Amino acid sequence: MNPITSHLGHISSFLAMEVFARAEELEKQGRDIIHLEFGEPDFPTPKVIADKGVQSIRDSRTRYTHTQGIEEFRAAVVNKYKAMYGVDIKPSQVLTSSGSSVLLYLAMRLLVPPGDEIIMTDLCYACYDNLAMIGGAKPVRVSLRLENGFQLDIDEVKRAITPKTRAILVNSPMNPTGTVLSQECMEELAKLGIPIISDEIYGDLIYEGEPYSVFSFTDNAIALNGLSKYYAMTGWRLGYMILKEEWATVAAKVHQNMMISAAHFVQDAGTVAIREGESDCRKMAEEFDSRRKFLLRRLDEIGLNPGYNPVGAFYVFLKYPDQSKKSLDVAMDILDKTGVALTPGIDFGPAGEGFIRFSYANSKENIDEAVKRLQQYFS
Ligand SMILES: Cc1ncc(COP(=O)(O)O)c(C=O)c1O
Hints:
Shape: globular
Structural class: alpha/beta
Bound molecules: pyridoxal-5'-phosphate
Radius of gyration: 21 Å
CATH topology of the largest domain: Aspartate Aminotransferase, domain 2
Largest sheet: 7 strands, mixed
CATH architecture of the largest domain: 3-Layer(aba) Sandwich
CATH class of the largest domain: Alpha Beta
Strand content: 5-15%
Strand order of the largest sheet: 2-8-7-6-5-3-4
Number of domains: 2
Mean pLDDT: 97
Number of helices: 12
């Protein structure tokens, strides 16, 4: 290890990228690979949104903006949260940046001083514990188990609380399981009186049940959101967070130092996405739901029922039959033998060992072909 950078030696990379790198090698050798490892819509950004971005560049909207984002974008976010969840937030509570990942880091820096603790789930999006540690915070993980439908056990959360606990981080609908935390669980979490950081990036991709925001339960919270998933804008890099005004003032200062602002023309495109993109984006969400049902049916037909109901995002988390094998080995072996790229469960925490994640952000034809190959592999 390089002694100069050794203080970051415990930070890991995404295993999904390792699977992808191997998949690319195989593709170069002429193999036909089906990519089910990425958490990224396979659709292009809807035209109305892309056109606005292009027009905005032509109109020279290419300068820095207010660090919290342009007024129109923040107003669009305020209206969206009112329309979807009935919650009242003010534009001064919105902070816009280049993707939600950096805001996740900022949210943790804001609430959790170095040396203090943040409770997060084990299973969670691969970067959560790394971002906490980069900021000097200590992640304390509470396991999610298939037997509980990957729901959070509030008693386990209570047991994880110490005098150093500064925040609880949740994600619903969730990566990697596609599950939604129950409203009862959110109510119980809110009652603990500890600030909640709620990653709502898949909030528009709920196929069963009523959507909610953390602000439906408490304002002692930070909601993180972004346009990558529902609006198919991953590469545009646009995200936002919603937080109390007094927190937003501090967050804005930190953000100004780190990022100055999100790109102006990207914010214009994002404004149009939220205001006018709904019909295009709803169609994509309907297609995801249809693929979800298709994948679940096909897995069931080959004896690989995941044993719970993934009702959101675009993921299915599957416990594979031979539990003596490590998930990274299984994912790599499946890739080598069948050409199907999946993400090893261990990418999402120790509780993910024994599982593989499917992303159904791919066509039904490809999903069908992948399941056929897996049937052969597991037989
Ligand atoms: C739960 C979750 N949060 C945040 C992100 C990152 O989103 P962004 O593109 O806004 O940085 C992802 C991406 O996969 C995710 O799965």
